[in-house]
Amino acid sequence: TVLSEKPTTFTITVTSEAGENDETVQTTLKFTYREKYPDETPLYEIVSQENLDDNDVMDIIKLLEQQAEENLGMVMIFTLVSAVQEKLNEIVDQIKTRREEEKKQKEREAEEEEKQRFHGTPVTIENFLNWKAKFDAELLEIKRKKMKEEEQAGKNKLSG
Fold first, then answer.
1. Which of 16, 20, 56, 156 could cross-link 88 (Cys pair, CB 3.0–4.6 Å)?
2. DSSP string, 13-78
3. Close Cβ partners of 46 (under 8 Å, ≥ 6 residues apart)
4. 84-115 per-position pLDDT tens digit
5. Region 68-94: what's the mean pLDDT?
6. Local confidence band at 137 (pLDDT 50, 70, 90 cut-offs)
7. What are the angstrom distances between the C-alpha of 13 and each of 49, 69, 124?
8. 131-139 contact pairs (CB < 8 A, 24+)
9. Number of CB atoms found within 10 A of residue 15's CB
């Protein structure tokens, strides 16, 4: 979109190719030609962005600086926009990779948790003896209750 003729100022919206789940990143670049363009770099700024964090914006600005310096003396807007387009596609790929890594990490954690559940307590002599004492006490208690019940049942029976 041309914003002014003197100096020539315009904006170009650059969108990445759609990634997974049709997710895209987008930025709108504003270019202003200087008097000596293309022997002098144009002025540029990012006027808006979508789904980009601050580090990504800084990377795009550094990329624009580098590409502008490399292309001094040549018409460079197409080259700058193409470089930004490639960078946005890389960012979408990084987002996709990050999500896949997070998913794998969650799967690994769930797997470890599952292993831990089935692992149980290791049996040592001390653990076994503690368990055996509790088990014997429970059995003794059950026998006592059973004997009391039999005694009660025996008293209530009629003889004869």
1. 16
2. EEEPPP-GGG---EEEEEEE--TTTTSSPPEEEEEEEES--HHHHHHHHHHHHHHHHHTTTS--HH
3. 27, 28, 29, 30, 57, 60, 61
4. 999 999 988 888 888 899 999 999 998 888 88
5. 91
6. very high
7. 9, 22, 69
8. none
9. 15
